[in-house]
Amino acid sequence: MSEMYRPYKIPSNNPSHGSKTESESYNSNLSDKKPDLSFSYDQRFAEIEINGNASSSYNSAPVPSPAYPAMDPKRRLFKEMREIAWNNHSSYVYNLKFYNKNTQHENSRVFYKQAVFMKDFEDDYTDWVSFSSYYPYYQLMNYEQLRTYFSWRSLVRTGIVEEISLSYVFVYIYELLNNIGIDDPADGLKKLMSFRKAYKRHDATIDKYLIKWIKDYYVYYQLEDSFKDFIYEYNLEGHFPEILEYEPDLKGDFESLCELSKYNIRQSAFYKSNSSLVSECLEFVVNRLKSILADAGLNLYNFIYEISNKKTAWTPFKGALFYPRLKQPAKTIILSLNEAYICEQNMWFLSSLVCTNSGRQLMTYIFKQTEAVLRTVTGYKHKLSVGTDIIDGSLLQMLANKGISIEKTVTDAVKDFHREKNKIVVSVDPNALSRIRTEALYTQQKLIVPEDAAYNSAHMPDIFSWLNNNVSVSDNSLTAANTAANTAGSADLSNSRIHIASALTDKQSDEKSSSLSDDFLASSPVLESGKLLQKGASALHETEPLNMSLPSGFQTAASPSLSAGQAATPSSSGSAASPSLPADQATAPSLSFSQHTTLFPAGQASAPSLSSVQAASQSLSGGWTSLRQALTDVEIAALSAVLEGGHDMKRFADEHGIMLEVLADSINEKAFDHIGDSILELDDSMIIYDEYLENVKAMVIDE
Length: 703
Known about the structure:
Blueprint: H1 22-31, H2 73-87, H3 101-117, H4 143-157, H5 166-177, H6 185-199, H7 207-220, H8 227-233, H9 241-245, H10 254-258, H11 269-273, H12 275-295, H13 300-304, E1 305-307, E2 312-313, E3 331-336, E4 339-344, E5 347-351, E6 353-355, H14 357-377, H15 393-401, H16 406-422, H17 430-447, H18 463-470, E7 471-473, H19 477-489, E8 502-503, E9 514-516, E10 523-528, E11 531-536, E12 547-549, E13 554-556, E14 590-592, E15 595-597, E16 599-601, H20 610-617, H21 623-630, H22 633-644, H23 649-655, H24 660-675, E17 680-682, E18 686-688, H25 693-701
Parallel strand pairs: 7-9
Antiparallel strand pairs: 1-6, 2-5, 3-4, 4-5, 8-15, 10-11, 12-14, 13-16, 17-18
Helix pairs in contact: 2-3, 6-7, 12-14, 12-16, 14-16, 18-19, 21-24, 21-25, 22-25
């Protein structure tokens, strides 16, 4: 039978402890609320025997310490990194409210110091694990996650950007925002944009934060390059429209100017009847004033706008773990009318631009004075008076110190505008001038005879010497003929084409001689070395036909070309051999000259008129054939595409890697070299001239 055991204190043998009975002592112990835990080494303790077994004896032995594995270098490095947080009394351990401002500041400070400590660390861990956290940083990662992050970062720094948990991605972005692992702020911005481009292929949601942090980066680090240039360089126009619209200068368009003036010019009766004139004139006046002020080292923009006194505190990189460690000088950075960033005593503020009262007064005067002068110069029935007293006195004095009279500047600008607006302008189409020049060069080229062996002076007889030796003249016309002959004799006829346009008639005589009429050569155009020389002479007239033998090498338009030694068929009147003929020619051709007979070198069937030359040059057997051979396959394909119609020639040129203008010029240059004219013009597309359309068709088809 089990017994209930009650605690029992062994009474002391020391009589000084009192004389209470055991029962009283027992009851006293039961009634104490707070038992006396003190004891004396003189007290006796009983050994209790349980179930009749005596307690076994115990031997003292040291407690063995647990065995820990040796710490690897990476784990030791991570431990040292974590100690940075412990030594800096970071509140992250005790405060779970990550959205608290003080907590964020403390965490960002710890993150920055740890990031600097780990900035050069590289790893090659392959068993990557995921990680998810709000405001992620190293202290929240375990051993495997730390190795995963630094291994991924090592690849990113070599240009290999692989997809990973977004928390890792933001840790890397935080590093760049804090300029960890970069050379300078400009290099950091390039790395940030390069990473953005690479990782957007995996997850574009990072842009939600990156775009605003990029602007903050430019402002906080005060980069020298223009933020607008940066926007255009990285194609960010859609993200910053207000910044692109802002100009650090006064806009010269009418609508923007009206917002700055207290005078509502749109309500003016003069404006309602001359709205276009007034708006154009105001833009002209303001631009003239800006130019004059700029020459004096002033900016009209600074007279109009100033930074508002209303400022709000600005925190760069809001939403990121960023530690503002830099001590920055006082500075103002204006990105748009609504974004003026001000740094004062290393604290940042955001403000906006407002139009000053003195600026509005100045614009009001410009509007009124412009309209007043316009009314005067246009003869408007009602006048408008305005004085400079509406402008702030200090502003007028500052302009006067620079030698600028605002009244004279506006008045002169309006008069100059009105004069330019009403002057008579004769417009000349440059394309038409180019066409005229081309046609003139073409005509000149056709009048120039190229050098050829057939025209060499050694093989071409002197027509005037031959005429002197074989033709007898009975009147004073011989003097004119000899004068013309002697004049032309001094010219090099090897490269000349000679036209004798005279009224000649045949006259039979017993001495087999020829006589010429009174006037010889009313005019004789001679081409010497490619230049047209006009030779004057009198025309010869005879009432009776005259038989005349021509020297070797000449013929008439009515006769075929005769080679040396070949006899021509005598005319009806007959002709004897001339004693002055070359030895190898037995009989000189006897020809009957009719009125306006033309003499030209042998081998040419007729005198070439400009139209005949042009027609001949357009034959595919001539210039067009050589043009076809000179054109490249791309140029032939381009002409074919133009003939077919419906082709986008700009796109055609782009597909073949050539500018459309260059392609058209190349075709026209080759055409000019071979046929003496351009064959197409370039407007919005290529257009082949109508007169050459059939030739181009034949040329393109003819391979």
